[in-house]
Amino acid sequence: MPTWATVPAMANAHSHAFQRGLRGRAERLSPDHTDDFWTWRTEMFKLADSLDPPAMYALARETFKEMAEAGYGAVGEFHYVHHQPDGTPYEDRNEMAMTVAEAAIVAGIEIVLLPAAYHRNGWDGEDRPPVAGQRRFCDPDVETFLSRVDELRTWASSRDGVSVGVAAHSVRAVPASWLGAIADYSERQRLVRHVHAHEQQRELAECQAEYGCSPIELLERSGFLGPAASVIHGIHVSDRDVELLARTGTTIVSCPTTEGNLGDGYLPAMAYLAHEVPIAVGSDSQVRIDPFEEARELETLSRRERQLRSGLLAAVGDLWQVLGANGYRSIGLADAPAAARTIDVDLDHPDLRGIDPDDLRLALVTCASAGVVNSATR
Ligand SMILES: [Zn+2]
């Protein structure tokens, strides 16, 4: 009997490497107020504010090493800690992004940098200016941001294992005009584009107040949706939102362990499936770095949603393979050689021991964990 099986490595389509530093500390909940996504965000700002390039490098290298060992074959790094804490650019305006990419190279994982545009702290009748912790994320205008992306692409073109897409942080962090400009740039330069949307109800309410529509409707009006686009989260969606994503060929990236940890809600996976919206996964806040757990969470949530044992897995057959293929396409690596993107899993590991080899594709998304990956072959 073989002890090992070779299976595809998973694509990590959404990551913020530095957020690994929030593990544990972000769980110190306060008896004085309600802890939610927004109080977590304040802790995240504090961590982001404290990082200089060497500290960012050390955190990112640790994160990426853990990803490679856990069975991820490439990572889309949604990067927004761009400037010095007061918002002044570093001498090289892309120093932080380059630092993160160098960390991935050393850790042995292919990276797609997704520099994310950020300009404001939401909207309440007018643009709310960034608070102290957000200044280093911000660019003054979209032209300045895109010229930085140009420079980063030039740098990355001479680096093996590094490529570049583009992102808008969210519809709260940039005005609508930026969304259109970023989408145009991505189409012209043939880059993938990502955006966070529909993670929190407050974000939907603010978008409704500012534009009279949902974030996904605004993204559609702005020309942001399309086959090169990925929407991260997509939790609180209407039928119309799902139809828009389906019609435009947009991918949804779900981050179940993070979304659960933050109390965001959960992906209506079966609705997306019914409309043939591609679904990928990401480790996002790094509260867990385990692609098997992300896949299992998605599958389990789809069963809870239906109150049946037949969920995503029963519908798609090889959920592990499908999530991976969608993820590589989401981060622009669908055409790259797949041979490098395999992992060996230990059939004698307690998670898998005794399963019928024909059931491996079923076991990978229901009872396996990152522990089954032979990291010595990575
Ligand atoms: Zn995110």
- Element order, helices and strands? EEHHEHEHEEHEHHEHEHHEHHHEH
Q: So how many helices? A: 14
Protein structure class: alpha/beta
Supply Rg.
20 Å
- The proportion of residues forming helix, as a percent range, comes to 25-40%
Shape: globular
| Distinct small molecules | zinc ion
Mean pLDDT: 95
Give the low-confidence spans.
none
Strand runs, count:
11
Largest beta-sheet details: 9 strands, parallel
What percent of residues are in strands? Answer: 5-15%
Terminus-to-terminus distance? 23 Å
SSE topology sketch:
Layout: E1 4-8, E2 10-15, H1 37-49, H2 53-70, E3 72-79, H3 95-107, E4 110-117, H4 142-156, E5 162-164, E6 166-168, H5 176-189, E7 193-197, H6 201-211, H7 215-221, E8 229-233, H8 239-248, E9 251-254, H9 256-261, H10 269-274, E10 279-281, H11 291-306, H12 312-316, H13 319-330, E11 342-346, H14 360-364
Parallel strand pairs: 2-3, 3-4, 4-5, 4-6, 6-7, 7-8, 8-9, 9-10
Antiparallel strand pairs: 1-11
Bound molecules: zinc ion (ZN).
Zinc ion binds at residues 14, 16, 78, 196, 232, 284.
Descriptive report:
This protein has 378 residues and is an alpha/beta fold. The protein contains 14 helices and 11 strands. It has helices at residues 37-49, 53-70, 95-107, 142-156, 176-189, 201-211, 215-221, 239-248, 256-261, 269-274, 291-306, 312-316, 319-330, 360-364; strands at 4-8, 10-15, 72-79, 110-117, 162-164, 166-168, 193-197, 229-233, 251-254, 279-281, 342-346. Helix 2 packs parallel to helix 3 (95-107). The longest helix has 18 residues, at 53-70. The radius of gyration is 20 Å and the shape is globular. 49% of the residues are buried. It binds zinc ion. Zinc ion binds next to loops.
